[in-house]
Amino acid sequence: MSSSIDYHNVDNNKVDPKSLTLSELKALQTPGYLWTQYINYNLAILITWLCLRIKVSAKWLTVSVLVPVVMGTGGLFLISFPGNLILFWIAIQLAYTIDCADGSLARATNTASPQGAYLDEMMDCCSLMIIGVGCIFFVYQRFEMNPYVTWSCVAFFSTRALGYAAIFLQGRFKLQERRPPKKLISKILGLCIDTGLWWFILPLLMLTSLCWIPLTLISILQAGNVARHITRFFRQCGSPY
User: Which end of the chain is more exposed for a tag (fewer CB within 10 A), N or C?
Assistant: First the structure.
């Protein structure tokens, strides 16, 4: 296929979405952090390719993310250890990969819209809330009310939720996104707050009571990321005072 195809408006080029190759579907994905870019996105294009052939819409794919989220989080309390963490790990990986696939599916079928983007943001918030509440109660029970583990888990999900809210407001106010400089330290910090990486590691951390150490450190980095978004908001919109 010609490299001059406008991947963000496939229908206008009269291209059958089913004929798009995996490499062309990958071109529809937006930039992500290192782990998400090279791991989850490569798995997501397979889901996009499959959905194009079984005619699943992008909105249905977006909503379907709640299925593995509910199953995996519920399994933490319904299945004995360590099977519960294995199920949770698989389910959360599937959910995040689906979340990475729905946007490229919408662009491939020329159905991307503000309503779809809003639905995706709402599903992200619902998923985070379900996973966060489930994990906090799980570690609370598993580690016999260890305050370090419990509060580090609370901090982890609270700062991540604030990060989602900051990105949501940035989109609503149409603030200009600045690309981070291509420096090693920026890539390392990006990797540290990468959702894909932490959804991969989180179930493994829940095996040990020492998980409060990395959870606390990443919470600090996530809080710094929220502060960066807030600072950008006031710089572009102006201080209300």
Answer: C
Q: Could you give all domains of the chain from N- to C-terminal order, each with its CATH number? A: 10-233 (1.20.120.1760)
Cα–Cα distance measured from residue 45 to residue 60, given in angstroms and rounded to the nearest whole number: 16
**49 contacts 22 by C-beta, under 8 angstroms:** yes
Contacts of 200 (CB under 8 A, 6+ apart): 35, 39, 89, 93
Contacts of 194 by beta carbon, 8 Å cutoff, 6+ apart = 32, 33, 34, 35, 36
Question: What beta strand segments (E) does 157-206 contain?
Answer: none
Residue closest to 108 by CA, chosen among 3, 36, 24, 47? 24
Stated pTM of the model:
0.81
What's the helix, strand, coil split of the chain in %, to 5? 75, 0, 25
pLDDT single digits (tens) 225-238: 888 777 776 776 65
Q: Which tokens belong to 174?
A: 């149409």
